[in-house]
Amino acid sequence: MTLHKVFVYGTLKSGEPNHQKLIEDTGSYRKLICLAKTSTKYPLIIASQYNIPFMLYEPGMGNNVEGELYEVDDKVLKALDELEDHPNFYIREQNEVISLEDSTVHTAWIYFIKSFRKELLEKQMLKNYSNNGSFPKYVTRYLRLGVNFKKDEILCTTQSFVSSEEAGPDDLNNLES
């Protein structure tokens, strides 16, 4: 069994709206290793009409983002790739994170938005996401009333994905971290 370290910073963290998707019992392996932060500063923002947290790939800007470091097997990593629509929307890349408990440095997969609208850098940049904070609340998929997420709210160029006009109902609903 191949194991992978994955850093989650948004709705997949413990106590957040999509955490269940990380821990669903699929006969797979996943284990929380520690609370951690990115070794490099990145912008963590909340954007879109659904108030989704995104980590933008703009190294050196923003904060050392705090989240959770998990060890997962291939099945969980594949499920996360599908949820995050890697590589069509989020790009999964290895990066260093630092344990908040003992300062150990780990190399982990992180899901970034790489080709984003530059005006997103004007949004407030967070150090730690919480849906229980003072920011607008994340809108869970079942409350979106059939309205699909529009990738062009975030992305600045056409990538290898189906446009929102051409998409079916399942194409755009799997996009959160």
UniProtKB/TrEMBL annotation:
Q: Which GO terms describe its cellular component?
A: cytosol
Tree of life domain: Eukaryota
Q: Which GO terms describe its molecular function?
A: gamma-glutamylaminecyclotransferase activity
What is annotated as the active site?
Answer: E84
Q: Which InterPro entries match?
A: AIG2-like_dom, GGACT, GGCT-like, GGCT-like_sf
Against SUPFAM superfamilies, the record matches this protein to: Gamma-glutamyl cyclotransferase-like
Q: Short name of one Pfam family for this protein?
A: GGACT
Q: Which residues form the Gamma-glutamylcyclotransferase AIG2-like domain?
A: 6-126
Q: Which family does it belong to?
A: Belongs to the gamma-glutamylcyclotransferase family.
What is the name of this protein? Gamma-glutamylcyclotransferase family protein
Organism, scientific name: Henosepilachna vigintioctopunctata
Q: What is the lineage of its organism?
A: Eukaryota, Metazoa, Ecdysozoa, Arthropoda, Hexapoda
